Amino acid sequence: MLILVFVTQSQAIHIAHSLLVDSFPEISHRRIRFLFVEGSQFDFYMATAKTLFGYRIEVESEILQFSEEAFSACLAHEYAHITLDGKSSFPKRLMWFLGWVQEDMEEERQADLLIVQKGLGKSLMAFHRQHDKKYEAFNKKEGLSKKEIRKLLKKKAG
Ligand SMILES: [Zn+2]
Asked: What distance in angstroms lies between residue 2's CA and the mean position of ligand 1's atoms?
């Protein structure tokens, strides 16, 4: 049997660290642990849970078969949740001040908006494309749509 794994677990940890330092310095002091899980009972690619001292990101092994870019975007979404965690957290207030997040927006969309503002919109598109090959496209409650991301990317470029 041939198993194609594009991102190994140790590579994943390496990418996760670089992404944290480069794009999410505001949460780089947080304690974030990774747990790799596998199986059909896990109906997510990644999920973030709060722990006593920090956060735990569960990574379902299927996402490791996506491209590195798509993997990064999926992880950026989880990091964005951590940044936005806590209504009055300093990072969130700063993002709000800069107009990067809107107070009345649902959390999933806020997280995606933050990713685009941080310059990772292209990677987010790559993730959507790979995701939509297998599953139904995200609806507007689950995050930004591809159309919205494209619009934001144009706005940023122009
Ligand atoms: Zn989310």
From this structure: 32
